[in-house]
Amino acid sequence: MSTESATGFDRFVSEERRELWQRSWKRFSSRPMSVIGLGIIIAVILLAVFAPLVAPYPEHAGKFTDFSNTLQPPSLEHPLGTDHVGRDVLSRILFGYRLSLMLVGVVLGFGVPVGVLLGLVAGYYGGWAETIIMRATDTALALPPLVMALAITSALEPTLTNAMIAIAALWWTWHARLVQSIVASERSEEYVQAAKLAGASTPHILFREILPNTLSPILVKVTLDAGFVILIGAGLSFIGVGVQPPQPGLGTMVSQGTSYLPDSWWVSVFSGLAIFTLVMGFNMLGDGLRDLFDVEVNR
Amino acid sequence: MKLDEPVATDPLLTVKDLEVGFESFDGFAEVIDGVNLSIGKGEVVTIAGETGCGKSVTMKSILRLLNQPPARVNGEITFDGTELLSLSDSEFERVKGQRMSLVFQDPMSSLNPTFTIGEQLTDTAQFGGDSDTGVIEFFRRKFSSERDEARERVLEMLREVQMPDPENIMDSYPSQLSGGMRQRALIAQALLNEPDLLIADEIGTALDVTIHDQILDLLKDLIEEHDLSVLMITHNLGVARQVSDRVYVMYGGRIVETAPTEELFENPKHPYTQGLIASIPRLTGDEMAEGIDGSIPEYLDPPRGCRFAPRCPYATAECEQGRPEMYQGTNQSGVECILYDETVELSDRPTVEETRSHMTRRSGSLMGDD
Amino acid sequence: MTDMSGSLLAVDGLKKYFPVKGGIIKRTTDHVKAVDGVSFDIERGQTLALIGESGSGKSTVARTIIGLHRATDGTVEFDGEDITNATDEQLARLRSRIQMVFQDPTSSLNPRRTIGKSLAVPLKARGVPKSERRDRVIDLLERVELNDEYWNKYPHELSGGQKQRVNIARALAVEPDLLLLDEPTSALDVSVQAKIIALLEDLQEEFDLTYLFITHDLSLVRNFADETAVMYLGEIQERGVTEEVFQRPRHPYSRALLSAIPVTTEEEEAYKPRHEPLRGEIPSPRDVPSGCRFHTRCPYSTDACSAEEPTFATVDSGPSVRCHIYDESYRDEFDEIPEVAVEAITDGGGTAAKHTERDVEQ
């Protein structure tokens, strides 16, 4: 076939693709909740990435004190007030988002691929592979992540890194379970048998044929999980085994602010609201995606 | 432009100018476009057509089973003198419950898996058509002697549909029954309240040939015995021929042809009907047409004139301009095709043989049809 | 290529039992006898139709031949090679010679992959270099009368008939000798079915394909298959030249199947055997009736039928039938027998003498 017809093809490809995307976006955007959710997440990610540029007092994110300026109520200078050592709450929240998103990235970045891979293997092969992987999963699922993280961090050292390891070490189980259940039903689908008959290799069947059919529920679950991970992280920080002061963990800030309630309410309330907004964002987006893909996610 | 559909004498149900559209993300899909049909008292009428022709949507709009929106239903549906579309939901439920019954295609999903056949059918016998009984009345009836009477009636009906071992079946759950038995249970349920109109949606299609055969035999007996008027929906022309008095052939959301069964199969007029009949494999081994080129119309943007024109071997420019009239023949037949205008020579009208030969010639084009 | 005259596929006494696990420790408590001693062979370039209702085991036969199930017993020979329970290495080789088209055109295409990608899979497996694959896929699409636009479409954008064309194209990609067609048109409308059947006929001629055509629809088979085998509960009940099976169905089950088809013309109505509705339901293959498996539903059955299993024997040097009616030693047991049997019994011998008026049509 000549190059000319090949370019003709490519033009065709992009048109088809664009149409597909347009249709998907149209359906997605017909649900205002999910668009708001997506908006919140994008805004928070941008703010977190550019925190050093957009935060009014970037230096307040660390070990900064200004005792002449402690516990100031919201004002033009400090829109969300200052904390007990005079740091700007808004700036600290923006840097706090960085830590929260990093936690999400590490936990899901490790947990999802591992869980998906184990789920694929267990679901496709069945038998012993399934028994071993799924019983391990069941065991891990019986342990509440928060309690496990608490145990690990207090046994080792209460740092953010240890908290991340602890949560990530449990998180794969959710995805292994989800993927295994999908794959177990997909593997008997005729398209898998047809691929087998066409001579496709097992890796091809697993990653090219079956995996794409599990992506929608995984994506929905990842989005909903993100909110959950942030809450656990904040919870650990709140009880002092996550982000350590003076680092600006959102949970840490809520916890520190509680000492000055109810008079200086802004520290706890605003950092709490910051957590709430981001978690809501992920949940709204997740619900929207779930409706869009029309999938069931066991949680 | 629209002429009256050939009307049954003494009609029980008439549908006039039915239009049904659906809102969708891609726009408004005009699916049913001016359907007229009627079912006489004691008549068995079939709507036949292939996937996507609108036969189920027509049936669902008669029974108000469409969600509005996204569906929009316009027209007139008259049942024994009562206009149905203007009734309130509860009034409609009363008419439906007392006088119409529906037998669904899928016998498994139309029975509740958590109740025994006996419980479900006895409830129908006791409460069918009485949607707002009230709690006290509900319990009073459920635990009174009326319940036993209703149970007796159900048993009687199960015997009538030739259910094997009906006493035991009463205490069985739907999952314990075979497909054929579930279909029988549904037919019994439909007949419990002695409806005037039975609507049968692809009855028995999911069953095996020999079981399907039994169910059709049973249905024919019951129709006669109970003097039922029946609206059948089917994609199987053989079934239509076996059971019904008159057939409506649907294509692209319109009725393209109607005739008494015998006439329709002996002398099909519309090119679509002809093509469809020619495509059915013959037991006798006669040559079978190689199907109809092209695909069913896109409802978002249907052809302006005759909806079959893009696939019709006889189509002319005139066909694409406007919707053809329903040309009426004798005894309740009619065909929506301009070839049946008085001005067209008899010899210019297509025969099944001609249509078959048009469809047997290999097109050679890469239409990606069907 | 081996000799052209012999059969391409020979199945002998094939059995496939599925274990039923029960109890707490999942022991095998029972067997579903899906296929229970099936034998047939197909000559190169010919079509054998395997007909049956649900539970007859017709699809299991195909899946066992192609190695999707392991055979419990019996042998499958392909082109002279024993391929029963083939090794992986054998399977890899066989898959470029035997292919299958599934019943449901929708579920046999991956919804997340474009047609082009799905069709490239067999080419990739055969080692066709990436640069050539697209052209080859377009050739394949053209072979099934689809144009190159389909390359980049997803299955949901296609109609049922188009999807089935793609499935046929995928099966053809490896240039097979034998195609197992598992009810390839039963999910389609008649006008589309007619087109797929016409396509299959053309392809058979063009590529000298051999077909095993599995269906529940007898009327489809009449013009399509050279030989017809009627299955019931895991056994072939009647097998013979299609003409013969249709014109003079001998087994009561074949007769019932033929008579149950809702036909559309008077000629066909006259052609059908007398309407003999069957009693009751199809028994479960888990609990196969004793003696003749069909006796629970057979309009002719007698005590002998439930007591002893009939043998599969040739009648009038024509088709083979598994029925006591055609066995001389059981003749007195039956009060009533089908008219074909009367003929067979009154002047046993050559078939030519007993042509009925029905045969005149041919």
Automatic annotation (TrEMBL), chain A:
Query: What does the UniProt keyword field contain?
Result: Cell membrane, Membrane, Transmembrane, Transmembrane helix, Transport
List locations, semicolon-separated: Cell membrane
Q: What membrane topology does the annotation report for this chain? A: Multi-pass membrane protein
Give the superkingdom in one word: Archaea
Any GO BP: transmembrane transport
| Membrane-spanning residues | 33-55, 101-126, 218-244, 264-285
Q: Which CDD domains match?
A: TM_PBP2
Q: Which SUPFAM superfamilies match?
A: MetI-like (SSF161098)
Q: Name one GO cellular component term.
A: plasma membrane
One Pfam family recorded for the sequence:
BPD_transp_1
InterPro entries named in the record: BP-dependent_transpt_permease (IPR050366), MetI-like (IPR000515), MetI-like_sf (IPR035906), OppC_N (IPR025966)
Q: Give the ABC transmembrane type-1 domain ranges.
A: 97-286
Do the record's keywords include Transport? yes
Family statement drawn from the similarity comment of this UniProt entry: Belongs to the binding-protein-dependent transport system permease family.
**PANTHER family, sorted:** D,D-DIPEPTIDE TRANSPORT SYSTEM PERMEASE PROTEIN DDPC-RELATED, OLIGOPEPTIDE TRANSPORT SYSTEM PERMEASE PROTEIN APPC
Name the chain's protein: ABC transporter permease subunit
Which species does this protein come from? Answer: Haloferax marinum
Automatic annotation (TrEMBL), chain B:
Q: Which domain of life is it from?
A: Archaea
Q: Domain (ABC transporter): give its ranges.
A: 15-277
Record keyword Translocase present? yes
Q: Which GO terms describe its biological process?
A: peptide transport
* NCBIfam families linked to this entry: oligo_HPY
Single GO MF descriptor = ATP hydrolysis activity
Q: What protein name is recorded for this chain?
A: ATP-binding cassette domain-containing protein
| Keywords, alphabetical | ATP-binding, Cell inner membrane, Cell membrane, Membrane, Nucleotide-binding, Translocase, Transport
Stored InterPro entries: AAA+_ATPase, ABC_Ni/Peptide_Import, ABC_transporter-like_ATP-bd, ABC_transporter-like_CS, Oligopep_ABC_C, P-loop_NTPase
Membrane-spanning parts: none
Cited SMART domains: AAA
Q: According to the UniProt record, where is the region Disordered?
A: 348-370
Q: Extract the PANTHER family matched here.
A: ATPASE AAA-TYPE CORE DOMAIN-CONTAINING PROTEIN, OLIGOPEPTIDE TRANSPORT ATP-BINDING PROTEIN APPD
Q: How does it sit in the membrane?
A: Peripheral membrane protein
Q: Name one Pfam family in it.
A: oligo_HPY
Q: What is its main location?
A: membrane
Q: Which GO terms describe its cellular component?
A: plasma membrane
What PROSITE patterns would the database entry show?
A: ABC_TRANSPORTER_1 (PS00211), ABC_TRANSPORTER_2 (PS50893)
- Biased region (Basic and acidic residues) positions are 348-357
Subcellular localization is given as: Cell membrane
From TrEMBL, chain C:
Q: Where is the signal peptide?
A: none
> What would be one Pfam family of this protein?
ABC_tran
Q: Which UniProt keywords apply?
A: ATP-binding, Nucleotide-binding, Transport
Q: What CDD domains would the database entry show?
A: ABC_NikE_OppD_transporters
GO terms of biological process kind: peptide transport; transmembrane transport
What is a single molecular function from GO for this protein?
Answer: ATP binding
Fetch the InterPro entries from UniProt.
AAA+_ATPase (IPR003593), ABC_transp_ATP-bind (IPR050319), ABC_transporter-like_ATP-bd (IPR003439), ABC_transporter-like_CS (IPR017871), Oligopep_ABC_C (IPR013563), P-loop_NTPase (IPR027417)
Q: Which residues form the ABC transporter domain?
A: 20-258
Q: Which SMART domains match?
A: AAA
State the similarity comment.
Belongs to the ABC transporter superfamily.
Recorded protein name is ATP-binding cassette domain-containing protein
Q: What is the organism of origin for this protein? A: Haloferax marinum
Q: Which classification does the entry list for the species?
A: Archaea, Methanobacteriati, Methanobacteriota, Stenosarchaea group, Halobacteria
